[in-house]
Design brief:
Four copies of one chain form a homotetramer.
Chain A: H1 26-48, H2 51-58, H3 63-69, H4 72-81, H5 97-108, H6 121-125, H7 131-152, H8 158-182, H9 192-207
Helix pairs in contact in A: 1-2, 1-4, 3-4, 5-9, 7-8, 8-9
Chain A binds a DNA duplex (21 and 21 nucleotides) through helix 3.
Chain lengths: ~220, ~220, ~220, ~220
DNA sequence: AATGAATGAGCTTTCATTCAT
DNA sequence: GATGAATGAAAGCTCATTCAT
C-alpha cells in the first residue's frame, strides 16, 4: 500500500469504564474488535483495512487479533459471520411480493444498520481473495435469491423466474453500493418512505406473473 | 496486501514489432500500459494491482509508468478517463424507454466489453481513496441518471423521477457487480437475449408514467 | 523466526492421574516441562523452540514456565543442567583405552538416550547466546577431555596428550551431529556393534603411547 | 526472538569509495550482502541472523535483499552455494592417506578461511528448516565421504569402509564445531602443524587396511 | 498455585517511489 | 527516452513476557 489514509482513527471502546484501559474482559474485547473491523472492512475494504488500525480503534494491542481471530482472514470471516443476512432471519422473510418491496426499502434505507455504519451487504462485496470467502458470499446472495423466488408466488419457467429473483438481488446490491460507496444523490439520501414506491414498481415489474398475452 | 496472486502475468504488447525490443513508440507504450492497467484494476481492484505487474504485462520498465502517469493514482485516473461512459457516447444514448431496456441488456451482457475483460463500470467502483476520483465516479453516474431521465419521457414530480432514474443506474451497477465480482448464477451467465425481457419489465415498472388511479 | 513447524505437538504428561487435570504436583509439572523442553531444544534448537509449544506439550499454562524457570534462558539452563554428562557419572567412566571405545560406541549409537530422543550432547551445542551457558558447555566438554586423558594411560608431552583427548571429544561431538542433525548414512543408522571396531582403531590411533622411535 | 544481540553491527562496505554511499554497483553490492550474510549465518545461525542486520552491515536498504535473493531462504542458499567444498575442488583432493591428514589439518586450522571468519562447514550445520537445504547439506557431506573413500585405497567390506570414511567426516565436523562454536582449548588454538600429527594417527587408524590377523 | 488476558518489540516481506546512469 | 539500482514506509505476523484475577 504505502498510500494515504482516509479514516480518522478514533478510540471507540464503547461501554468500557472510561478513563482506565480496557482490562480483562475477553468477550467484550473480542466484540469490540469485531465491531471495529466490520466498520473498517465496510468503509475501506479488505486491503485498506489494517489490523494495526483496528486494534488502535479499540485501544488494544495488535497481537490480540491473532489471539482471538488467528489472522486477518479469520477476522474478516468472523466479521462476515456475524453479519445479519441480507433480509432478516428465516421467519422474518416477507412472504409475498407486497411485503417484499417494503422490506427492501426499509433494509436499504440509510441508518437501517446503525451497528454497521453502512449496509452490511457491502461487507460481502469487499474482496478478500480467499476462495472460501468468495464462496460464503455467493452462498449468501444465492440464499437471498431463493427466498425472493419463494416469496414471488409466480408461476412459469423456472430459470427465468430465478433470473428475475437474482435481478432483484442485483438491484439491492446496486442500491447499497451506489448509496454508500458512491454517494449518488438523491438516492443516497432517500428515506425508506421515498424508496418504497419505486421499489414496489420494480418488484411488481420483475416478479408479477406474466400478464396474459405476453410473449417471452 | 498480503500474498496471493490471482492473475497470470502474460506479456501483452500486442501489435508490437516482434523480435526486437519495444522501441521508441511512446504513444503505443502508453496505450499498452493503460490497457494492462485497466485489466488489472478491474479484475483485482486498486490495491491488489501492483505497478510492477502492470509494467511486466507490457514488458517495459516500471519507471515508465511514473514518466507517463506520474504515480499509481495518475495511472488509475487515466484508466478511468479512457473508460467509455456507462451507456455509449452522447448521440448513441437510447431515446426512449423501449430502447433503454434493450441497450442496457446489451451493455450488461457478458463479453460486451472485450477490451476491458469485464464491464467497465466496475472500474468506477474500485476505490482509490482520492476525492477527485470519487468525484469523477459520481459525475459519471449522475450523467447517466440524467440521460435516463431524459429518455424516460415521464412527467411528474422531478425528484421522484430522478430517484427512479438512479434506481435504474443502481440496477446496472448491481448487475455488473453481481455478474463479475460475485459470479451469481444464472445471472452471471445470462445472455443479452435472456436479460432483455426482465429488464424491459423493470424499466417499465420504474419509468412508466404512473398509471391512472395509482396513488404514490 | 518465520513460519514452519517441524514438530508434532503431542500431549505428554506421562504418569499423571488420568481423567482429571494435572493438579497441584509442582515437582511433577516441573519435571514434565523440563522433559518437553529438552526434547524441543535438542530437536529444534533454542530459537525454534517456543515456550508456548513446550507448555502445550505438557498441557499446562505458559505462565508456569515463568514461575518455575523465570525465563526461556532459565528453562534452557535447567534443561542443560539436568543433562547427563557426555559419558556417564564419575564412577562409571571407563578406566582404560580398551573400555573407552566400547563406551563411546554405546553412547553414540542411536536410541542410547531414550529420554532425550537424540543424543544429549546436541543440547550442549544449541546456542543460547548467553555467556554463562557457553561456559557451562565448555566446562562439560573440558571435563570429558580430562577424563579421557586420565583413561588414556599415556605418557609424554602433556599438551599434545590433551590435544589428542580433545580430538576424541570432537569426534564424539561430530558423530552426534552428523547422526542426528545431518542424518548422514550409513553412519546415522550404525549400531553400537558396527561402531565399535572403527572407534577402537581411532582411540588406539589417538591415545596409544607413541611407538618407540617416533619423533613428535 | 525478542532476545539479546551478540554481534556488533559494523559497516563493512569494503572496497567502496569511502565517504559517500555505495552507489550503483549491483555486483559489488550483491557480493557484499553475501559476505555479510555468510558471516552472520556462521556466527549466529539462521534464526538469529536478521536481514536488517545483514543490510545494515553492508549499509544498504533491506529491500535489496529481496531484489537480489528474493527471501531469507534464498539468501541462505546463495551463501551456501558460494561456500567452498569441505576439502577443495575436484582436482585438489588429496589422493592418498598420507596427504589426507595433512590436507585436513590445514583445512581445519584457524584462519584458513579468512573470507568466512569461521570454518565454512559450520554454515552447513546452521539449520534452516528447509528440506532442500538439508538435502544440500547431506549431499555435500556425502560427497566428501565418497572422496575420502577413494583416497583411502583400502580394500575390504564396502559398507564398513564407507562407515569409516564417514567417521572421518564426523571428526572434521566435530573439530570445526568444537573449535568455533565451543572454543574448547587447546584444540581451538592449535595450529596446522600441531594438528597434523594426531590427525595422521586417526586417518591411519581409520583408513589403514586391516592388519593381518585382525578380526572385524 | 495457576490461568488467561494483554503488551511490546521485532522480523520478514511487499510496494510505490526516487535517484543515477 | 529509458533502465535498473536503491530507498522508505508500512503491513501481517510471531513470540517472550507481564499483569490481573
Amino acid at each position: 500500500m504505502a498510500a494515504r489514509k482516509t479514516d480518522g482513527s478514533a478510540d471507540v471502546a464503547a461501554g468500557q469504564p472510561a478513563g482506565g484501559r480496557r482490562r480483562r474482559d475477553a468477550a467484550a474485547t473480542r466484540e469490540a474488535l469485531l465491531q471495529a473491523a466490520r466498520d473498517r472492512f465496510i468503509r475501506l475494504g479488505y486491503d485498506r483495512t489494517t489490523l494495526r488500525d483496528v486494534a488502535a480503534d479499540v485501544g488494544v494491542n495488535l497481537a490480540l487479533i491473532k489471539r482471538y481471530f488467528d489472522s486477518k482472514e479469520g477476522l474478516f470471516k468472523a466479521a462476515l459471520a456475524g453479519t445479519p443476512r441480507f433480509l432478516g432471519g428465516a421467519g422474518e422473510f416477507p412472504q409475498d411480493r407486497a411485503a417484499l418491496a417494503e422490506a427492501l426499502s426499509r433494509q436499504l434505507a440509510a441508518g437501517a444498520w446503525p451497528e454497521f455504519g453502512e449496509h452490511p451487504v457491502l461487507l460481502l462485496l469487499r474482496v478478500s481473495g480467499d476462495e472460501r470467502v468468495d464462496s460464503l458470499r455467493r452462498q449468501a446472495l444465492r440464499d437471498f435469491s431463493r427466498r425472493v423466488l419463494e416469496a414471488s408466488g409466480a408461476a412459469g419457467d423456472d430459470d427465468e423466474r430465478l433470473l428475475r429473483a437474482e435481478l432483484l438481488v442485483a438491484l439491492g446490491v446496486g442500491i447499497a453500493v451506489v448509496r454508500s460507496a458512491v454517494g449518488l444523490r438523491p438516492l443516497a439520501d432517500a428515506t425508506a418512505d421515498e424508496l418504497i414506491g419505486p421499489l414496489r414498481d420494480v418488484v411488481d415489474g420483475l416478479l408479477a406473473p406474466p400478464r396474459p398475452g405476453d410473449a417471452v
